[in-house]
Each structure stands twice: as structure tokens, then as C-alpha cells.
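JOB MANIFEST
job_type = single_chain_structure
chain_count = 1
residues = 174
[input]
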Amino acid sequence: ISMVRSDDSADSAADEFFILLKDYPRYNGSYAAFGKVTSGIEILEKIKSCGYPEVILQTNGRRLSKMSFAQQTADLNVVEYVISLHGMDEETNTVITKAKGSFNQAVKGIQNVKSLGKKVRTNSVVSKDNLPYFEELVGVIIGLDVDHINISALHTAGTAFRNFDEVTPYYKDL
């Protein structure tokens, strides 16, 4: 699944998505590809049964903290993992994710898939909660030897929109 962009502008992404059924090299580096195993491993099994040679999995990384699950996803053609990490430590990450233990689980998940020889990208969303510590967060991520670091602006929809002033940093604060 990928998101449509109308041009090369960073502000051109819209609420339009598409699914690629074969490789389109001209899209490489131009579109955001994403997906998340929300129902269980059967989603990846179905993708593999459709004949896809490679899968990129976007996840919070928590289930990957169990090596058996990390190995199972790798066996189902996952070649790259995009793992969310929003805080520099357990405390900051928990404030943002509202999921106690999520930092340590994500870090362990990153370590597990790296030990399997897989590529790892992290995705970190800038918010008022992590902005004061963002340099430290990037240092932690670099220390995990990931292959790529995504830094994203907060998408102010849903709860983030309702709590805009509490969560959204202004560009002047960056």
C-alpha cells in the first residue's frame, strides 16, 4: 500500500492510497509504503501465498521483541522493517505511545531483526513530548545501527487534531 503524491513537494501527500501488484522501479524513493500486522501472522502468510517476493512491514516492533516472531516474519518474505520509536527512553516513549514497555520491546525488536540480517528503518514523529529530547532520540537510534531513520511531522488528525495545541510543535520551536 502506498500514498499518492501530486508532485515532489513534501506537502503534496493526500488521503489517497494505492496497492502495487508488481514492481514499479520509478516509484522507488518517491512513495511511502506501509502496512501493519494487526490481526496476526496470517496477513503475512496471505501476502506470501500471493507470490510477493519481498514485503516491507511497518510496525510498533513490540511483537518482534520475541525472536520466534521475528524469525517467523522473516520466513514470510519480510525483508525490511519500519519500526516506530518516538521516545529516547522508556519513560518518554510511554508518555507518547501510552504503552508501557513499548520502548524496550521496540529496541529488542530492532535488535532481533538486525540479527537476522534484515534492513531496519525507524519512524519517529516529532511532538511536543519528544522535541526537547529529539537529538538524544536520534542518538539512541543511531546506536541501534539501523539502515534508515525517518523523521516525520505529526499528522494532526483524530486525537492529535483534537489536542493540537498540546501535542503539535510549531516550526519556530524546532
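[summary]
Confidence is low (pLDDT under 50) at residues 11-19.
Strands lie at 2-5, 13-18, 55-59, 78-84, 119-125, 148-152.
exit_status = 0
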